[in-house]
């Protein structure tokens, strides 16, 4: 892609900080929304994470009209239809999605149906199908990894046809993303680690893939620096509120970066592995990142070398010869993964995951080749190349 032309787009208002939730009622009422519905999952509700959201609204005299708390990890068309029917029955006028990627994607899909009308979600699948603004939509992420709060994409499973339907439109973007450290303070160590590595991968691929641009670079490098600095601190002290906020902000920055510069082979492999082996997305990102960087190395030597400054700091960067900085960046990421393995047994190879068998590698390779993300990988890859990366990721 030519560096002489690029587009950068992020119209989402970000409200971040230790009292961010208390701003939700103002944001709703300022656009005339009075009957919000919360879309979430049972884990979020059981962890008590809805309580401060509900309290913030009630303290301002705003009633949460309906709560749907049964979003599954892999959301489907039938779930979206069920929620849309409840929204209409209760005469809601806005949605607050509270959760991780699945709850947020579900909220986006529900908003399509309740704004456009009807129950045929599939007809809105694809890019550019939605032609007008949707109803008020707000997002409160409870993990610091997906960046879904600032992306214009949603993926919902058609359980009848057995396929994942992608939805892409600027109108899917929320009116505001509310980033509050209270939402991630209870995340267990392995999810904290996996989601942070998801944000790290978003940033590294954003900085090294074909559609990178100066603005996405700024967000990507800032996110890499935050994850590098604060993930070890949060792993050592999970109740570190400042560290939690920094990781949440890093996730949002990474989301802005990759939604403008796209991602590559790590994501193509991750999507395929998730579909075939049902491995969590963040774990897939952590597993594949160093092996894909090694495959891309000679094509991305210069930008990957630049990342050493953000991964390991100015002292290590200045002490490392420029010709070795790309390799040192990969080494820094491996060191980070090794530390996470020691702290919470986050797998470093497909074999260590215990959920992928060797005979599944061929199917993963075939599916990855058909994934849209591979188009933006800086180095072309055929089946043999992808299989070789998988062999390395299998052995570790």
From TrEMBL:
One of its GO terms (molecular function) is metal ion binding. Keywords: Oxidoreductase. Pfam families: ADH_Fe_C, Fe-ADH. Residues 11-181 form the Alcohol dehydrogenase iron-type/glycerol dehydrogenase GldA domain. InterPro entries: ADH_Fe/GldA, ADH_Fe_C, ADH_Fe_CS, Alcohol_dehydrogenase_Fe. Its cofactor is Fe cation. Transmembrane segments: none annotated. Residues 192-394 form the Fe-containing alcohol dehydrogenase-like C-terminal domain. Belongs to the iron-containing alcohol dehydrogenase family. This is Alcohol dehydrogenase. It comes from Marinobacter psychrophilus. The lineage of its organism: Bacteria, Pseudomonadati, Pseudomonadota, Gammaproteobacteria, Pseudomonadales.
